[in-house]
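Sample intake sheet
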Amino acid sequence: MFSLPTPVIKCLSALRRGGFAAHPVGGCVRDLLLGRTPEDWDITTAARPETVMALFEKTVPTGVSHGTVTVLLDGASLEVTTFRADVGYSDGRHPDAVVFGDSLEHDLARRDFTVNAMALAEDGGVIDPFGGQRDLAQRLIRAVGDPTVRFREDALRMLRAIRFAAQLDFSIEEHTFAALSALAENARHVSGERIKTEVEKTLLSPRPETAFLFLSTGLLPSGVVPPDCAAVFHGVPPEQGARWRAFCRAGGFDITTLPTERKLRAAVLHPEREAVKTLSLKADRLMELGFRGPALGAAQETLARHILTHPEDNTPEALTRLAVRLLPPGEA
């Protein structure tokens, strides 16, 4: 038995009192089984979207055409989605049509990975038709059914496989990984924004080195894999700019091929500009030495580039010696 938050219990109770099957599903069940506190709660139900909206006072029609309604209850936002089956994926990314149904197992069958294809029964038991609990125990990311079919349906699932492996500290099951590698070129169907999001979540995970799988499999179109991927992130804090910078430098990946905000792009391409703020040698001291105007800014960036690779030199004494060398002859 699991302890569910009060809003979740109320939501399930309202749906069941209305005569509809309703179950917590997906990532929240996975997290409960891993002993984690779920960040989000998804509920799958036999109730149609219009019925869900009628049952609750505050709702948002988040994706009614796909069966999803956000229920706002006691300060919580719960995603409530009708049992459904997806029909056709002609663009390799989105279903051509959604058919609402009454079968929980059919709904679970359309999901990406076994660890995300479990639901909680009304008595608290785990409904697990595809072996998700087994794969949790074995720490595996395995596609539901045929991985080639799953990835041809929606290419985003390939990137999600790598991201989940990094976040959960799991491995990718061999047939799932083989299909991912064989179909990597289908990542062209995924928007740059979604690719950037999945890579970034991987980089900010406890296993950022897993991000190099995006390069080795060809999901990202160019780059190299360093000999020691884990060493690349040694001492690198779990910060957006720092992790992207380490990844791009070691992997030779061009971040400008993805849509990124200006701040992140600058952090990767021009880290010295941010490092200027940390220099122990301040601008007034550089002016005393004779730097003015553009020469002052150029000196600061040169010193900043130096301390990025030699942080031990970030002292007033050491930087003063370096700065003097930057002065034109006769001004030192």
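Comment: The first strand starts at residue 22 and ends at 25. The chain has 17 helices and eleven strands.
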